[in-house]
């Protein structure tokens, strides 16, 4: 992964531009839908005024928009952290296998124990942690190299996806509630889902930002990072645990939403450079723009039929993946 330097003035300017796109995405998410609501009506409803559209804004669109923003932030930070510790722009929780671990355990709850759906978040987190530990065990050989972690992650992801397929095959009569989970969607997400995601996103974001300078040191390579006194293996586990926490929380709420963790951090890196003190905030803002705009497109593209946002991200993600291959930065 190339280290790309940008001036402080350029970075600040790009952060402002990205922030404006994030605000645009939030605005579109609140305005557009089955019923288009004028901007003055949206503002009036948001600030407590009585309005014909008050319930639509406060009980449907606002919580869904917040969930989209929190999901985007969590997945983008998760991807940025994994790309940092593995020094590979292809790394993201979906491809590496962490999301698959959360997905397998989440699908297991939905299909085998539907009455315990309230345990979906902790169970998904256990699955993600289990997948991360399995990846590290498979990759360990007197230490962990980024390449071995990626290869082990791809293998573990394939194994866990096979487990998901087996569950869907053996319990085909119960897959109705799991279909949206498999694709990743924001339909019917409301305030309880905001309450689930918010603490994980805050904790993960704070821990990631605190460690941004250490990620810069790790980007120099294991040998040089160790020479500078950094405990590389300790921090690799630390950042992987944060990435796992963030990915698992999103899987438990919106399902297996792929490509966000790869597209957003890499796009932010192209715009703002590889200094994680700037890259992480840029990824946060860009993820809000990407997820809210993508969800708006998913709602409007084939209205009144609503697409899961995971389909839109797949359409964006596959060409982006090919773009990375063409750049030969993997």
Automatic annotation (TrEMBL):
<feature type="transmembrane region" description="Helical">
    <location>
        <begin position="305"/>
        <end position="325"/>
    </location>
</feature>
<feature type="transmembrane region" description="Helical">
    <location>
        <begin position="237"/>
        <end position="264"/>
    </location>
</feature>
<feature type="transmembrane region" description="Helical">
    <location>
        <begin position="119"/>
        <end position="137"/>
    </location>
</feature>
<feature type="transmembrane region" description="Helical">
    <location>
        <begin position="12"/>
        <end position="39"/>
    </location>
</feature>
<keyword id="KW-0472">Membrane</keyword>
<keyword id="KW-0813">Transport</keyword>
<keyword id="KW-0812">Transmembrane</keyword>
<comment type="similarity">
    <text>Belongs to the binding-protein-dependent transport system permease family. FecCD subfamily.</text>
</comment>
<feature type="transmembrane region" description="Helical">
    <location>
        <begin position="191"/>
        <end position="210"/>
    </location>
</feature>
<protein>
    <submittedName>
        <fullName>Iron ABC transporter permease</fullName>
    </submittedName>
</protein>
<keyword id="KW-1133">Transmembrane helix</keyword>
<feature type="transmembrane region" description="Helical">
    <location>
        <begin position="94"/>
        <end position="113"/>
    </location>
</feature>
<dbReference type="Pfam" id="PF01032">
    <property type="entry name" value="FecCD"/>
</dbReference>
<dbReference type="InterPro" id="IPR000522">
    <property type="entry name" value="ABC_transptr_permease_BtuC"/>
</dbReference>
<feature type="transmembrane region" description="Helical">
    <location>
        <begin position="149"/>
        <end position="171"/>
    </location>
</feature>
<keyword id="KW-1003">Cell membrane</keyword>
<feature type="transmembrane region" description="Helical">
    <location>
        <begin position="62"/>
        <end position="82"/>
    </location>
</feature>
<dbReference type="InterPro" id="IPR037294">
    <property type="entry name" value="ABC_BtuC-like"/>
</dbReference>
């Amino acid at each position: 992964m190339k280290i790309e330097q940008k001036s402080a003035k350029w970075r600040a300017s790009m952060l402002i531009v990205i922030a404006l796109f994030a605000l645009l995405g939030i605005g579109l998410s609140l305005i557009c839908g089955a019923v288009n609501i004028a901007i003055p009506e949206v503002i009036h409803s948001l600030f407590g005024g009585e309005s014909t559209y008050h319930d639509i804004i406060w009980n449907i669109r606002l919580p869904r928009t917040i969930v989209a923003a929190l999901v985007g932030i969590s997945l983008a930070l998760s991807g940025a952290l994994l790309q940092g510790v593995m020094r590979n722009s292809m790394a993201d929780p979906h491809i590496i296998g962490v999301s698959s671990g959360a997905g397998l355990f989440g699908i297991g709850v939905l299909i085998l124990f539907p009455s315990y759906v309230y345990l979906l978040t902790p169970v998904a987190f256990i699955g993600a942690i289990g997948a991360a530990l399995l990846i590290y065990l498979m990759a360990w050989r007197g230490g962990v190299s980024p390449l071995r972690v990626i290869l082990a992650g791809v293998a573990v992801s394939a194994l866990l996806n096979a487990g998901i397929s087996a569950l869907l095959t053996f319990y085909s009569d119960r897959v109705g509630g799991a279909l949206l989970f498999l694709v990743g969607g924001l339909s019917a997400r409301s305030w309880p889902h905001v309450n689930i995601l918010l603490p994980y996103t805050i904790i993960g974001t704070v821990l990631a930002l605190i460690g941004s300078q250490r990620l810069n040191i790790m980007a120099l390579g294991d040998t040089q990072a160790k020479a500078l006194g950094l405990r590389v293996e300790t921090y690799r586990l630390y950042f992987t645990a944060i990435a796992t926490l963030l990915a698992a929380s999103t899987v438990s709420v919106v399902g297996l939403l792929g490509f966000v963790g790869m597209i957003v951090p890499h796009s932010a890196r192209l715009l703002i450079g590889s200094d994680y003190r700037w890259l992480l905030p840029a990824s946060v803002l860009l993820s809000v723009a990407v997820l809210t705009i993508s969800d708006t497109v998913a709602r409007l593209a084939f209205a009144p039929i609503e697409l899961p946002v995971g389909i839109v991200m797949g359409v964006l993600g596959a060409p982006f993946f090919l773009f990375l291959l063409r750049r030969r930065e993997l």
